[in-house]
Structure formats: C-alpha cells, structure tokens
UniProtKB/TrEMBL annotation:
<dbReference type="Pfam" id="PF08770">
    <property type="entry name" value="SoxZ"/>
</dbReference>
<feature type="domain" description="Sulphur oxidation protein SoxZ">
    <location>
        <begin position="181"/>
        <end position="267"/>
    </location>
</feature>
<dbReference type="InterPro" id="IPR030831">
    <property type="entry name" value="Fuse-rel_SoxYZ"/>
</dbReference>
<keyword id="KW-0732">Signal</keyword>
<feature type="domain" description="Ig-like SoxY">
    <location>
        <begin position="38"/>
        <end position="148"/>
    </location>
</feature>
<dbReference type="InterPro" id="IPR014880">
    <property type="entry name" value="SoxZ_dom"/>
</dbReference>
<feature type="signal peptide">
    <location>
        <begin position="1"/>
        <end position="26"/>
    </location>
</feature>
<dbReference type="InterPro" id="IPR032711">
    <property type="entry name" value="SoxY"/>
</dbReference>
<dbReference type="InterPro" id="IPR014756">
    <property type="entry name" value="Ig_E-set"/>
</dbReference>
<protein>
    <submittedName>
        <fullName>Sulfur-oxidizing protein SoxY</fullName>
    </submittedName>
</protein>
<dbReference type="InterPro" id="IPR013783">
    <property type="entry name" value="Ig-like_fold"/>
</dbReference>
<dbReference type="InterPro" id="IPR038162">
    <property type="entry name" value="SoxY_sf"/>
</dbReference>
<dbReference type="Pfam" id="PF13501">
    <property type="entry name" value="SoxY"/>
</dbReference>
Length: 274
C-alpha cells in the first residue's frame, strides 16, 4: 500500500468516526386508516368529502376524556342528494369506530355535536354516506392521550344513582314558529359509559366495559336521529343536533346499553321540563 493511499484511508476513517455512521432511513409511521376502511366499511371506495362533511375538534384537547367534536354537513340546498349516515372514526383508539349516526329521512339534520375520548395523538375521520350510495370522507388531527383509560368523573354510587336519567333541551329562538323551522336540541343521558380500560382506584382491577350502544330520537313518530355508540363516547353521553321541525308536539328518546337496560323518556317540545 502506497503512503498516499494509506493517508487517504486514514482520513476516511477519521471522517467516519467524526460524522458517525449514516443513519438508516426512518421507517414510515404506521397508518391504520386503510385497515379501518376494510374493517368498518368493507373496503368501499372513499371520495374526498371536504365539500360534503366537516369535522371540528380542538387540535390539542384540554381533557382527553371529554373532547368536543362537531360534525356538519355541507351539501348545497340545490343538491338532490341527502346525507343518510355519518360515521365517526378515531383511528388510534382501541375501538376506533366511536359512533355511527343515522339521520331521519325527513328531519334534515345538518349538525351533530358530542364528546369523545381520545387515547393517542390521532387522525379522526368523518365518513358521510349519501343517498347515492357513495361514501365521502374528511379528517382532522387531534393531539390528546389517555382518554380511554382516564378515571371516571363520578364515583360508582353517584353513577349508579344517575343511571339512565335523561334530559332534553330545546334551543329554538322565540321568534321561530313550531312548524318547518330549523331547531337545535340536546339529549343527555346519565351513564358511566365505562370503556373497559379504566381501573378501579380501590381494587386496582379493570372496570368492565359498560356503555350506551344505541340511541333513537323521534319527534312524534318521525325519526330524527339514531346513534350506534362505542367506548369512545364520553361519560354521560351528550348529543346536540339541529333538525327541521315537522310541527310535532312531543319529542321522545330511547337508549339501550350493553347490559340490556332500556331507558326512555318523552317531553313536550315547547316545554321540555314537563
């Protein structure tokens, strides 16, 4: 080996030591969404839904156990299609399908708000199924963690005493008439909605999953909204929504939970407290 070549090899070795071994390319982060499309939607084609369905959530949640989310339809009045159902998917949650909302054919629901648990930094997808049979998706990214395992806000005895209590609020403006006007209402259900990932602080054992998995809402006998819920819906489910009144005098709701309890209540539209 010549002295010149030896010097070059020595310099190369020193540079390798100084600079370190070149880093291997970073592995791409795993994206669960393609698998969720297969599992939840049977691999049906997904269309860009930015002009069809909007989703609003805080980018960084203050409390991962009660993250507010609003779903809003964007179809133009001239569009002959209607939104049949909206599915909310929290990609990184242990049970990603948070809820599926089925919209009453004559209720013209355009906005739904609720509160959800978020377990990890994640994409959240809203998938709207339209009357033409196609699916449209939009998404948002949320920074939150630990929501599914966060301790319940109420103790066991308090939660038991409030189990199934239902409240209804009407947000109609005083100048609006009872018929064919857009209104806003809210249904609240007292229920622990245990996720199955929470730990009893006394026994240190996991609390079994126990949550509201069905909710149906009618104005008189006309369906307004139905929800198929999962463990991602927060404690004491709270559903707020807009709808078009058909002149009904009464509002009623029926909820079921995973232990087979059925909760139902009926209210006067113009006087919810009775």
């Amino acid at each position: 080996m010549t002295g010149h070549r030896a010097r070059l090899l020595c310099i190369a070795s020193l540079l390798t030591i100084a600079l370190g071994t070149p880093a291997a390319p970073a592995a791409e982060a795993y994206d669960p969404w393609p698998g969720l499309v297969q599992d939840i939607f049977s691999n049906r084609p997904m269309n860009d839904g930015n002009d069809v369905i909007g989703i609003e959530m805080p980018m960084r949640a203050e409390d991962a156990a009660i993250v507010p989310v609003t779903l809003r339809t964007k179809l133009q009045p001239s569009d002959s299609r209607r939104v049949v159902a909206i599915t909310l998917v929290i990609d990184e949650n242990p049970a990603p399908m948070a809820a599926k909302f089925t919209l009453g054919p004559a209720a013209n629901v355009t906005e739904i708000s609720t509160r959800v648990r978020v377990n990890n930094y994640t994409n959240v997808h809203a998938v709207a199924e339209l009357s033409d049979g196609k699916l449209y998706v939009s998404k948002i990214y949320v920074k939150a963690s630990g929501g599914c395992s966060a301790p319940a806000g109420k103790n066991v005895e308090e939660a038991k005493n409030r189990l199934g209590q239902m409240r209804y609020r009407q947000f109609t403006k005083s100048e609006q008439g009872p018929a064919t006007s857009t209104r806003e209402a809210q249904i609240m259900i007292g229920h622990p909605n245990n996720s199955g990932l929470q730990m009893d602080q006394v026994t240190q054992l996991y609390i079994p999953a126990f949550f509201v998995n069905e909710l149906h809402i009618w104005q008189d006998d006309s369906p307004v909204l139905a929800m198929e819920g999962g463990i991602s819906i927060s404690e004491d489910p709270n559903i707020r929504f807009t709808y078009v009144s058909n002149g009904a005098k009464r509002f009623r709701a029926e909820a079921k939970d995973t232990e087979g309890h059925i909760f139902e209540h009926e209210w006067k539209v113009e006087n919810p407290g009775t």
